[in-house]
## 1
Amino acid sequence: MNNRKITYAAGGVVWRDAPRGREVLLILRPKHQDWTLPKGHIEKGESWDVAAQREVKEETGYDTVITSFAGYTAYNVKSKPKVVFYWHMEPSGECEFEPNHEVSHYEWVSALEAVDRLTYEKDKELLRRLVTAED
């Protein structure tokens, strides 16, 4: 039996209120040329929520406040299972974003625009569920 190691990651669905309504934060990763939600691996001894906030800060420059649990996605990367837990977050303070090799750009977009823009179906499904749950 193949004992495949599961990759655990955590991330944020970061929201803000804007003049045109609520917006969500997406990142563009140049290595993959994909639009996704900020997320990353959990470090040894780190809790899921702390990892999520650290990754959002590293990838977007925003400190955040967690407002609630948002859900999870599960999929395979190179035939290994990966699970990502997401939290609803709000930005706290000013952004200190510097484009880098991991994230070249970020953008605030409406939830509907985000569903169109996101590259991966699992991300789209998560966001659709979150938007539907709020109506």
## 2
Amino acid sequence: MTPIKAVFFDVGNTLLFRHQETILAELHRKGVFPTTAQMHAIERRTKREFDDSVMRGGDVDHGFWWAYYSHLLEELSPQEDSLRDSLVTATRISGNWCDILPGTREVLRRLGRRYRLGVISNADGKIADVLKICGIADCFITITDSGLVGYEKPNPAIFHAALKGLGANAAESLYVGDVYSVDYFGATRAGMEAILFDVCGAYRDSAWPRVESMQELEARLV
């Protein structure tokens, strides 16, 4: 394996996580409060279904969260299309992804002393501002947002744009993201190495390289 010189990160469910109080506010008003264990179980189920769909040519941008909230509402409350749609809309707002795991900035700063760091995200053109508000934008040399470059993962074009922006070689670069069909498949198809950031354990039984925390990622890279 060629030594890694650059590491790129996904944002959602990798660097930043949903602010549940904001995104689930309408659900909470109905007296429904899903637990972390319930949401992780739904995420594992949805990722398996979503990966199968994307690999068969399904919709990347809208499909995951539509399926996720459909499953969540089926389990926790009466199915309401309007409620599901409002949850999807809230989730697609980059500013609502503002929860950060403890130690994330510290790990990024240490990794930045050894590797060139960048971001590649399917977002709405505002992810650089969100990363700045969350206090980690300065950890990255480049931030590639699909809303600005016009290509979404898993299209190799967005990975190539990010590599060019950072002046990095694909064979010497690693991508870290949470969805196999979008992140792992997209990055490896672009010639990069990849690791799944798998907090919910969706890929625990797979053969693909995976970590469950930033600290575990750092241990693999250092």
## 3
Amino acid sequence: MYRTVTLAFALLMLAGLSAHAQSKKDAPKADPKMAAMMEAYMKHATPGEGHKKLEPLIGSWTYTGRFWMDPKDPPVEGKGTAERKWILGGRFIDEVVKGQMTGMPDFEGHGLMGYDNHTKKYVGIWMDSMTTSFTISNGMMDAAGKTLTSEHEDFDPAAGEKIKAKDVLRIESPDKQTITSYRVEGGKETKMMELTLTRVKK
């Protein structure tokens, strides 16, 4: 982290010096290597088409859901709200989810989502009130920009180990989205959650 902050500071200083130098007629030309490095950093940091595909997620939502603790048992039903907004100049989405499930304490979750210009994948980190572990995901959007499929690993306290999981977010319309989560074992997918989100009209 220290190295990342140091590089960011160096780039800010470089940008400031470059602007100052350009204001002087007799200023020497910029170092080509430094200029190329700055261009590379700026290209990596600039939101693009991958970020635009996340725009439909922004807004206030209500949701209803079904949750399976055991696929053999009936699902637990729940409902709640989700707030999503852009942060850091449109580079990441900040998401706050609050809800209730039958027989469970009130739930709260926080997430960050974005598009990594380097890996060409959608990345996310999630934390909530039902765990002390982070979930880190990587995903791909279909060509139509309607379905985002992400994979991640979650710690299962009952099993005492991490499990593989998959989330499928579908943009059904400007005002409706669905999210389905699966547990993945031996190539077999078992549904764990179904959510239907409806946009709150202002």
## 4
Amino acid sequence: MSAMSALDEALTRAAGSGGPVELDLAGVDFIDGSGLSVLMDAESRARLASRELRIVAASRNVRRLIDFTETADLLSPLAPVGAQPAPVADA
């Protein structure tokens, strides 16, 4: 539960930055309904704020849960399997 709270807080802060929020979930070994709920809530908040939340990479476990729950239409489009996230520019 503490990980979900931390993720939710981080997504809220990132959404307040004004730009798109990109999530790299390629390294996520485990996700359950609570994690999916955080992602869906963040997507909803982003849409309401006219912001974009993109999942740029997702592990097989993340994809499996999204497919199993048929929530892909409620989340941002997932990058194709095997796609690499865009490199992050140094600030």
